[in-house]
Every structure is written in C-alpha cells, then in structure tokens.
Design brief:
five-stranded antiparallel β-sheet
Length: 344
C-alpha cells in the first residue's frame, strides 16, 4: 500500500486533488486534474442564446417573379377590379406560419392549386342551373346592350320545342328572349368558368352591361385576373365579381358573335390557345394600329401582361389593345405571311 495519499473523483463530478510526498519531505505538491462537466440548460435559456431566424422566402410556386411572364407590367394603382390579393395571401401565409401550421397548410395549398387548370378551355361537366319564373336575370334588349330584368313566363314552342323567356326589364319594356341572351345575376364560381365561356360583364369605365368572351383565367402571369374580350373587340382585365355567366350558351359560344374582324380574331385565338401569338412591345415604342381600315401612328404607354395601352399621336386618344390583336400592323403582317406559307 502506498504511503502517498491520493484523492478520487467525487460523486458530484467535481475534480479531486491528488497529493504526493516527494523525497520524504513534508512539502506537498498539489496536482489538479481538469474534468469537463456537461450541464443541460433550461429551454428558456437556450431560446435566449439562439440567434433570430431570418424570414423565409416564398417558394418558386408562390412567387410572382417577373421571369414567369414574357412581358413587363406596371400596376395601375387600383386593385379594386381584382378579387384576388397577392399581399393578402402572403399575410395569411405568415399568420399560419406563426401559428405553427405552415407545413400541413402549404402542402394542402399545393394540392388544391394542382387541381386548378388556368388553361381550361372546355365547358365543365356541371349540373345546369335552373331558370324559373320571378327570377332576376340580365337579358339582352339591344345589340351589345343588356339590362336587368325578371322572368315573367317560360314558353316552350310546340313546333320546334325551343324555349323562350319573357323578361320584364327594370328600365322599361318586355321582350321574348332565348336562353343564350339571358345571364345569371349571381357571381359564378371559379369551377364554372373556362376560356371561351360566354359572359356578361360590368366594366369600370362604363356602367353598361356588355357581353363578351372569357379569354384568360387567373394565373401568376396575369396578376390573378380574368381577361374578357367584349363583342366590340375591346379587352378588359376584371375581377370575379364583374362576371356573369350566360344561362344557356351555344355549344360553341362564338356562334353568338356577329360576323366580322372580331369573330375571325376570336376563332384564331381559341384555335391557338393556350399559346396565342403576342407581339412584343415596351413603353416608348411606336407602332401602327388600324382605326376603321386606316393605320395610325401610336406610342406604347403601358404594357400590362397581354394588353398594352397606346396613345394615338394625332389626337392623344388612349386605348387598351391586346398584344395579339389583328388591328396591329405587325400582327397583320405575320398573319399574311402565315397564310401565304399555308397556301404554298
């Protein structure tokens, strides 16, 4: 047994002191051994020491990157025409993330978005909405003009079985109209809409109800709006509340359009969809636009997705035109070349 007393590691984990006698002298030499002790900190201390987490970036599917669009756009400063708000969506996502529900919610959102097809151009197979007496509707009274009214009577003709609706208009008068000249007052659901649908709309620049063809469903490329071509060829970006579905449209909704340049354009547009031909312009560019058969000089003022606002140099008149419109001189040249190639 050694004469040198020695310590040991204490049970509480603290280092002990080992003492040795050297050369029989009474002098003591203390040698300390370092021991690492790991102690678990409470969660609140760990949280206090952790650096702040940087904000998360939206995924590629959720962003409105300019690379998703082949054209540039400028906000018009008035989002009231749109029923969809990107900023609101992002605020809602932020709330859900803070509530600790981000992963399931994001997965559900992706699943829901995957079922939505913004290129849909066939009428959905949904039950037909009922029309009945005393029902408030929108009905055609004059060319390009629709008014609010009420169905007084539903008449079925014996000779051909065709159904007619007697409508009492709010302003004045009564008319017997067909089902393709009546529209629902209620706002349609997104699942009811498709590119090529026959609609009646209320435009911001006019209180009049006007018929048209739905040309784009909401997507990131058009800032989540609906594009509608009115029967007079004017294009408008609108929100969902401005749309009203025609009750009993033709199988081919273009049959209801009057013959002319616009009907020719819409046939080509639907044939090319979802890849319609678009010319490329930037603000400040000059171009020629057809006005009653005469090409007039214009300057591009704003490019908004598939549309652009032009200013006519002669009278400073401003007008929104589709970038694939047959009124554009460049588009007319393209169509002439294409037609010549097809004939060769």
């Amino acid at each position: 047994m050694s004469d040198s007393p020695s310590g040991s590691i204490s049970s509480n984990g603290s280092p002990s002191i080992r003492t040795e006698l050297k050369n029989g002298s009474d002098s003591l030499c203390e040698i300390k051994e370092a021991v690492v002790v790991l102690t678990r900190l409470p969660d609140y201390k760990v949280s206090a020491l952790r650096p702040p987490t940087p904000p998360q970036f939206d995924s590629e599917d959720e962003s409105l990157s300019s690379t998703d669009s082949e054209m540039q756009w400028k906000p018009d400063g008035d989002s009231s025409d749109s029923d969809f708000s990107v900023s609101n969506n992002r605020r809602e996502k932020g709330k859900l993330r803070r509530a600790g529900r981000s992963e399931p919610t994001r997965a559900a959102a992706v699943a829901n978005r995957s079922t939505y097809d913004d290129t849909r151009s066939t009428r959905p197979d949904l039950p037909e909405q009922e029309l009945h007496v005393d029902m408030n509707v929108l009905a055609k009274k004059k060319t390009h003009r629709w008014q609010r009214g009420k169905i007084l009577e539903i008449i079925t003709r014996e000779e051909d079985g065709r159904v007619k609706y007697k409508v009492d208009f709010q302003e004045s008068g009564r008319s017997l109209v067909s089902g393709h000249h009546i529209a629902f007052v209620s706002t349609p659901t997104l699942e009811q809409l498709y590119v090529g649908a026959r609609v009646v709309v209320t435009c911001q620049d006019s209180a009049m109800l006007q018929p048209g063809i739905l040309a784009e469903l909401p997507s990131r490329k058009n800032r989540l709006r609906f594009l509608v071509f009115l029967d007079d060829h004017k294009p408008h970006y609108l929100g969902l509340p401005a749309l009203h579905l025609v009750c009993r449209p033709f199988e081919d909704s273009l049959e209801d359009l009057p013959d002319g340049l616009h009907k020719t354009f819409m046939k080509k547009y639907m044939r090319d969809w979802p890849y319609p031909h678009l010319t490329h312009y930037s603000p400040g560019d000059d171009l020629n636009v057809d006005v009653n058969g005469v090409q007039q000089k214009c300057d591009v003022e704003v490019v908004d997705c598939s549309l652009m606002e032009v200013v006519f140099q002669e009278n400073q008149h401003k007008e929104w035109i589709h970038r694939g419109s047959m009124r554009l001189e460049h588009m007319q040249r393209y169509l002439n070349v294409t037609k010549a190639e097809e004939q060769d």
